[in-house]
Amino acid sequence: MTSSVDTFAQLGLSEPILQALTDVGYETPSSIQAECIPLLMEGKDLLGMAQTGTGKTAAFALPLLQKLDVTQRFPQALVLAPTRELAIQVAEACQKYAKHLPGFHVLPIYGGQSLGIQLKQLQRGAHVIIGTPGRVMDHLERKSLDLSRLKTLVLDEADEMLRMGFIDDVEWILEHIPAERQTALFSATMPEQIRRVAQKYLRDPQEVKIKSATSTVSAIQQRYWQVSGLHKLDALTRIMEVEDSLDAAIIFVRTKTATEELAQKLEARGYAAAALNGDMNQASRERVIEQLKSGGLDIVIATDVAARGIDVPRVSHVINYDIPYDVEAYVHRIGRTGRAGRTGTAILFVSPREMRMLRTIEKVTRQNISPLRLPTKQDVADRRVAQFKQQVIKTLEAGELSFFEEVVTQIEEEANVGAHEVAAALAFLVQKSRPLLMPEKEVRSFEADSAEGRPERKERFERPERGERFERKERPERGERPERTDAKKGKGRDLGNVGNMVRYRIEVGRNQGATPKDIVGCIANEADIQSRYIGHIALFDEYSTVELPDSLPKDALMLLKEVEIKQCPLLIHRLDGESEVIAPPRRKWGGDVDGNRAPRGAAPGGKGGFSKPGFGNKKPGGAGGFGGNKPPAKRRAPREG
Predict the structure, then answer these.
(1) How far apart, in whole angstroms, are the C-alpha atoms of residue 336 and residue 314?
(2) Could you give the residue ranges of the DSSP H alpha helices within 448-580?
(3) Residue 221 backbone phi and psi in degrees, to 5
(4) What is the DSSP string of 575-608?
(5) Are 81 and 130 in contact (CB under 8 A)?
């Protein structure tokens, strides 16, 4: 079926969803999407076997969104995920795909996030709930989550939930939601216990098994550069300039517009480049490919669909200017080089937020992708000088220079200079548009992105074993404040009585090397406000949260949207908006950071029921806890912590 599906429009998706897919650069469905979406659209139960990185999130999210009635504000779909990271990732994907669905609301719920926040969001209503098993059970028991009208259930990474000991919780949830529902179960492997769950709870499921592209051409050297700062184009041109054996290259971007823009920018820098995208007619496409084959073009900037089937022997490099959305697309991209026994090079640009996808590519393809050292100014100068010398030597070997020798002699006599000085002047004229030494302005811009001297960033990609989780997430306690030596103590605007504090999210975290001290210093200095107005800061791997006054001046907020920490823009935004996917605050009300429930009745600092009003429901003569119902069957032992 996959061979006959070239566009998402062929799958019967609505125009708002198709527009959202176009906005994010999706052009053609992956194998799992092409096979699963029609089955789920027909209302069939599904048992899917697919590795992470094959595009399975869109495979279940798109038909799920297609079948929603956004005018009815109650949970119509539930996705169970093993970890809060995956729950947030799926929620963000749903929000992205539903960009043009007015009034759509998705809510991730997981342990480690304040129950108060979740209760408030549940009261507002949500169409799709993405949750970890333990926290979903909590809300079902306290009746704060009503799934009586649930239409669709998705079990994502079922084998991972089994490995982490959540399968009993999953079965409890399956027994407490409507039996008349559509169910989709996705798992990378199919152990016997997962197979048993599928046989018990799925109705005549259709099976889809996708074999991931687990191998790439061994002749292809794969490297990546971690994007830093705003000089991606500069880095691209420098890398191409010093790459050995670069004959021709295909540069992959996500959108049709990006192909045109990047082609124009490279042409302005002296490269023979052209765009290749789906808007081009067949004649134009064939002309570009023919020019690439004949040497009329050296660089083609393409989208995934437009580059399908290209086999040009002189393509020595594939550069992923934009990282692909799934592993299958990556394998297809780099397969444009290193064909028929030839060698090739693949280079991948990866932002700090995309490092997880890089590790997924390595894991699924079972190949290591080594880091690329960005060339220094000396590397670029040496390369330019070597190329210039080679041109001069070839010209000398070609002969027939007697006329020009006579011209040089005349210059020597008329200007009273030596032959060396004339040669230097001629070399300057020839290289004037491309100096052998980089101009100082270009050097400063270039060195800002150099990987030399930049500390290696530590990434957390592998999920820890169950006993390790509490040590992994150290969070500042309430009331702690970092030492603010760089934040202009006492200086800056006095905001007076600031009123309520509001939580903001900024897109820098531990993986970018940020510290509370950096955040305080940046906000205080750039926004020109006193550091005493900066509240609680919580650091996470890929982002951080900071409390700031609700009355923060608009001009200060606009400034903070543009500034950077560790060469990464803050992109600051509030987290109290209804359409936001709420970032996790520090652990609160018991439980661990991945959605597993706290022991019954556990509360911070002591035994008994929750001390906050409305969260205890103690009954006379009984222990504190969630109250009311007797303990459910098949409950796993509570985790300590």
Answers:
(1) 10
(2) 469-472, 516-527, 554-562
(3) -85, 120
(4) S--TTS-PPP-S--SSS-TTSPPPPTT-BTTBSS
(5) yes
Beta strands 152-155 and 182-187: pairing type? Answer: parallel
Tell me how many degrees the CA angle 640-584-517 measures, rounded to the nearest 5: 105
55 neighbors 27 (Cβ within 8 angstroms): no
DSSP 626: S
pLDDT tens per residue across span 231-285: 788 889 888 888 878 899 999 998 888 999 999 999 988 889 999 987 888 788 8
d(CA 404, CA 370): 49
Sorted by where each starts, the structural domains of the chain and their CATH numbers stand as 2-209 (3.40.50.300), 220-365 (3.40.50.300), 378-447 (no CATH), 482-597 (3.30.70.330), 607-641 (no CATH)
Secondary structure (DSSP) of 516-536? HHHHHHHHHHHHTB-GGG---
Q: Which two tokens stand for residue 216?
A: 């790439």
Residue 280 burial (10 A CB sphere; 0-12, 13-18, 19+): middle
Report whether 369 contacts 220 (CB < 8 A). no
Model-level pTM?
A: 0.51
CB neighbours of 494 closer than 8 A, spacing ≥ 6?
530
Residue 559 DSSP SS3 = helix
Contact assessment for residue 314 and residue 293, using Cβ atoms and an 8 Å cutoff: yes
pLDDT tens column, 613-633: 333 443 344 433 333 444 444
CA distance 64 to 78: 10
CB atoms within 10 A of CB 572: 22
How is residue 152 written in tokens? Answer: 């669709």
Q: What span, in angstroms and rounded, lies between the C-alpha atoms of 13 and 619? A: 51
If residue 41 lies in a helix (H) or strand (E), which one and from where to where?
Answer: helix 31-41
Model pLDDT for residues 106-158, shown as the tens digit of each residue: 999 998 788 888 999 999 899 999 999 999 999 999 999 999 999 999 999 89
Q: Which candidate, 557, 548, 542, places its Cα nearest to that of 507?
A: 542
- Distance, CA of 35 to CA of 145 (rounded, Å): 32
Phi-psi region of 564 (alpha: psi -120 to 50; beta: other; left: phi over 0): beta
Query: For residue 407, what is the enclosing H or E element?
Result: helix 402-415
- Alpha-helix runs per DSSP H in 67-150: 84-97, 115-124, 133-141
DSSP state for residue 396 in the 8-state scheme: H
| Residue 257 C-alpha from the chain's centroid | 20
Q: Is 519 exposed, middle or buried (0-12, 13-18, 19+ CB in 10 A)?
A: buried
b/e code 305-344 from CB counts within 10 Å (16+ = b): ebbeebebeebbbbbbbbbbbbbbbbbbbbbbbbbeeeeb
- Would you state the structure tokens that stand for residue 66, as one six-digit string? 């297609």
Nearest to 598 by CA among 613, 584, 610: 610
Indicate the residue type of 467.
G
